[in-house]
Every structure is written in C-alpha cells, then in structure tokens.
Amino acid sequence: MCGITGYIGKNKNAISVVISGLEALEYRGYDSAGVAYTENNKLNIIKEQGKIVNLKKNIDFDIESNLAIGHTRWATHGEPNKINSHPHSQGKFTIVHNGIIENYLELKKELINAGYEFKSSTDTEVAASYMDFIYSKNNDILKTLNEVSKVFRGSYAFGIICNDDLNNLYALRKTSPLIIAKGENENYIASDVPAILKYTNKYILLDDFEIAKINSNEIKIYNQDLELIQKEILEFEGTFESSMKCGYEHFMLKEIHEEPTVFENTINAYLDDDFKNLPDLSKYDNIHIVACGSAYHTGLIGKYLIEKYAKIPVYVEVASEYRYKHNFYDKKTLVILVSQSGETADTLASLRKVKEDGIDTLSIVNVVGSSIARESKYVIYTKAGCEIAVATTKAYLSQVTIFAIITMYLTNNKSKEILDEINNIPSILENSVNIDYKEIANEIYKSKNIFFIGRGIDYALCMEGSLKLKEISYINSVAYQAGELKHGTISLIEKDTPVIAISTDDTLVEKTISNIKEVKARGAKVIFITSSDIDGDFYDYKINIKRTHELLQSIITIVPLQLIAYEVAKLNECDIDKPRNLAKSVTVE
Ligand code: M6R
C-alpha cells in the first residue's frame, strides 16, 4: 500500500523528515519511492525504483529545505518503475497519492484534448494534471482542490504542493488514510501515525473531502463548502510498535481487518480491461500448484475451482515433497508456486528444479522483488501489503482471490452475476471482520483436541482453519474430510470434543449433516459454519455465512475461522503475532 509523508517548517531539514517518515511506513509494502522538496524557492523531484536506500543514495541531505512531500508506491496503475513512481508533477502541481482514481482514463482523454502530455501510466499523473487544468481557470488552490474532489471517483489521499504557494502544503482525502500532525512551528502529513511519532504525537484525522492548508505555524481545515472548521487534536499515547498496530491489540487482528481493502486491491489490479496484468495462461493442458502451509491450502482451493470450472487437471503438492520426487510434467504443464514471503526455501527449491527441467513457472507472491517472484517466468503479485503476524490471514485471502481471478480468466467468465457478487464482497467482509466470536472461543479454548470437518472445497478451508488454530493457540487440531471420520478418527470424539463443521456447498450439505450427526451422537460440541439455511438440533452453535458465487465463497468463509483462532489464542494468553517455534519467512529446509 502506498505511504505518504510531508513536512513544512523551519526547525528541521524537510528532506530528512519525509525520508525518515517513509522508512517508518515501510511495513505497508512498496516498490518505489520518491520525494519533492523546495530548494531556494524551487521545487525538485527525486525518485527511484526499489527500496528507500536506493533513493537515499541520490539525495543530498545537506540541502536546506523547508517543505517536502514523500511517497512509497505500491504499484496499481503501471509497472513499478521510476517513471511511474511519485511525486508526479504537471504544470504548477506536484503531488503524492495513495488510492485509485477510477475515472482517470475519462479525465485523461479530456486533458489530452486540452493539450496535456503524459509520461507515466499512472492515475496520479492524471490527477496532478487535472488539478493544474482546473487551477489554470480559477487561479485559486482551495477552489481547485474542492472541485477535483467532486470529480475524482474512487479513493485518494493526496499531499500537494503548488508552485504558486510554496509557503503552504496542501492535503485532500477520500477513503484512503491521511493524518495531519502538529509540531512546534512545524507541521506534517502522513498516511499513518508511525511516520510522525519520532517528532510529535499530536495529530488530526482528516475526514473525507476535507482539505488541509498547512504552513509551519497553522493548520487550516476546510469542509466541502470551503468553510474553515475546527478539528479535534488527538494525542497518540502508545509506542512506535503499537502505533503500527493502528489501535489493534495484535497485528493479526489488524491484518484481518484489512481484508476488505486487500480484496478490493487484488481485484482492481487484475480484473479490469480483460484481465490486465495477467500472463497468457490459456496455453496449458495441466497445472501443478506447489507451496507450503497456508499457501498450500490456497492451492487446494485453486485446484477445486480450476478443475470444476475450467476443466483443467490440477495437481497440488507441498513443496518439501515436490522438490524431491519424480513429477509428471511436460511443456504443456504450468507450475504455479504460491508464497506470501516469496522466500520459502522449499518452494524456491521446487521452482528451481522445475525451471531446470524447462517447464513454465508462474508465482503468486506478496513480497515484491522476492526470490520466487524474480526467478519465475511469470509473476502475479497479491496485493495484501506488508503482513507482519506470523499467522497469515490477509495474504491467504488475496491468494484465494487470485485463484478465483485465474479461474474467471480461464473460463472467460466476467458475467454480470459474478461482477455483482464481487462488488458485494468488500461490504460482506467488512461485516464479517467485525463479528465477535468470544462466546464460541470461550466454549472451546480449554479443549485438548479440536476437529474440523467438511467436504470438497470446504475441506480445503478446514485445513486452513485447523492450521490457523493450532499455530497460534497451541491446541491440537486436525482437519478431516467429513465422510472419512468414521474410518478411524471418530474414536477420538468424546463428550464435549469441539467439532467445527463447514458446509457451503448445497449439493453436499445433507451428506455433511449426516456426518455431523454421527459426531453429535457421540457427544461432540458442534459449531456449524454454513451458508445454507438448514436448522436443526445437530449443532450447538451456528455461524451463518452470506451466500455468494462458489468462486468467491471461500473468501468470505475463511474470516470466522481466522477470528475464532485469534480469540482462542487470546484466551490461552498465547503470543499471537509471534507464536513459539515459528518464523514469518521460512528460509530453511
Ligand atoms: O511465505 P510463504 O507463503 O511461502 O509461507 C508458507 C508457510 O510457511 C506459511 O503459510 C505458514 O504456514 C503460515 N504460518 C501460516 O499461517
């Protein structure tokens, strides 16, 4: 996710302040960085692809500057290269931007007709040009920002400098986060509190459509009617680490709450304009999916969806096995490697082995520029942003989203039905992440064994639910195909053994209920997670999941499983973000 910083004041070097702010925002994930700063009443821009260290090499920190804006870019429109990185400048406006201007193509046409030329593929350069275009007519910065806020569709947080007023820094936002921070004879803007915490803990939350006009002594906030308004000055009372958690008790919970945005970002990156940014995947006869842990579980969902809808055979294997065995592939096989970190040793080794055999590889990776991403023939980046909790949640969700998109691509299905469902998912997720599962957690957190059962795609979800629970709560938990229990495992069921049963497939719900009744009859405490409206006395708790298209159903159904694991671990007072014996990136075999 992009990060924004800005500084105006005479006490400090503006360039150093914005760079250190960007460093504090690195957790958001990015692929390029840049700054714009004043020097002797002239504005300079420096930007670089890759990490902030690359940018710093090109900056002269001895330059005296009172005003600067900085940006870390997580590519959405156009490649992650220097030209597309921010700040973008057109005419008198230089801006940094977080968000997506949905109607930028429409505006670009209008601007080209008006004589504007564009260097980048970004929506941000269009936004800067549009500001300049409106300003050229009214010569009033506040009116310009107010007018563009009514024209731009989508989401945005802008840091803005206008050449005609280098005594002020401007900001404008809708949906994307932005704070204005208050110092002594100096002020700041930032995407998030960690960026300013080194200097001040006082800040103002800018609301949608509000405009900030900031100089070193004063912060003026204007509403949509351009009236000056008073805003509450908040004080952040935590540490740097707690500031990164944005008020959440744990990173895991914060990351679950980011899932609606992650879904939207992933969809926006690949679904539009005939599956833009996807490689040609239509030429393969069969697919192998190779990964570890949760990424392997998303592969199981991918297999289910691709086989059912695209009718292409898919073989899924954990990477630590795949790398050492004989695999049946040929030139018509595509091997898909899935990894959040892009550095998992077994997945990387599998990729190298497959490449040696001359087979095409595609990686689905979250960390930009990681080894797996760099070494595979094709890469699709999940748009989850930086994930800090060891237990993956939002990255898992974005991987499942990518498999839904790949299935749509392979079946050329962009029907109205599915697009409508996609549009509904963010708000469904928003509701889901706010549901309280403490009561259920309370019922099960003292158990020694917990079982997950389901059939078909729900079994793949059971595997992930079970892994999530055991890795952070240290309770033994096993996932079983619902029909398989009676072949041995059912002997472990005794009075009050928790069984979490998932059923989102109506064609199988009756069968799953029969299996639930088998465990219920032996005393199990059943938590029934379902999108069907069947009721009865075969469960103790029921969690209703909104019904959506099967391609998307798992994206919604995973949320209660993640939250139950979280609440159970919390009751057991476990180290939720850093469970014992585990690492975020498993770079050893
Ligand atoms: O970075 P990767 O996605 O390649 O990591 C794979 C697994 O180590 C990872 O999914 C692990 O299972 C998580 N701790 C699960 O929450």
Shape: globular
What amount of the residues lies in strands? 15-25%
Query: Biggest sheet, in brief?
Result: 8 strands, antiparallel
Average pLDDT works out at: 93
Ranges with pLDDT <50 over ≥5 residues? Answer: none
Percent helix among the residues?
Answer: 25-40%
Strand order, sheet with most strands: 3-2-4-1-10-9-11-15
Q: How many β-strand stretches?
A: 25
Number of helical segments with 4 or more residues: 19
Query: Could you say which structural class the secondary elements and strand pairing correspond to?
Result: alpha/beta
Q: Ends: how far apart?
A: 31 Å
Rounded radius of gyration (Å) = 25 Å
| Hetero groups | 5-amino-5-deoxy-1-O-phosphono-D-mannitol
Describe the protein.
The protein is an alpha/beta fold. 37% of the residues lie in helices and 23% in strands. The protein is built from 19 helices and 25 strands. An 8-stranded antiparallel sheet has the order 3-2-4-1-10-9-11-15. The chain starts with a strand and ends in an 18-residue tail after the last helix. It binds 5-amino-5-deoxy-1-O-phosphono-D-mannitol. 5-amino-5-deoxy-1-O-phosphono-D-mannitol binds next to helix 10 and helix 17.
Give a brief outline of the structure:
With 589 residues, the protein is an alpha/beta fold.
Quick tags:
single chain; 7-stranded antiparallel sheet; 19 helices; binds 5-amino-5-deoxy-1-O-phosphono-D-mannitol
Please render the helix and strand layout as text.
Blueprint: E1 3-9, H1 14-24, E2 32-39, E3 42-49, H2 52-57, E4 67-73, E5 88-90, E6 93-101, H3 104-113, H4 123-138, H5 141-151, E7 154-162, E8 169-174, E9 179-182, E10 186-190, E11 202-205, E12 211-214, E13 219-222, E14 228-229, E15 234-235, H6 240-244, H7 251-257, H8 259-270, H9 272-275, E16 286-291, H10 293-310, E17 314-318, H11 319-322, E18 333-339, H12 345-356, E19 360-365, H13 371-375, E20 378-381, H14 394-411, H15 416-433, H16 438-444, E21 449-454, H17 457-473, E22 476-481, E23 498-503, H18 509-520, E24 525-530, E25 541-544, H19 550-571
Parallel strand pairs: 16-17, 16-18, 18-19, 19-20, 21-22, 21-23, 23-24, 24-25
Antiparallel strand pairs: 1-4, 1-10, 2-3, 2-4, 5-6, 6-7, 7-8, 8-12, 9-10, 9-11, 11-15, 12-13, 13-14
The chain binds 5-amino-5-deoxy-1-O-phosphono-D-mannitol.
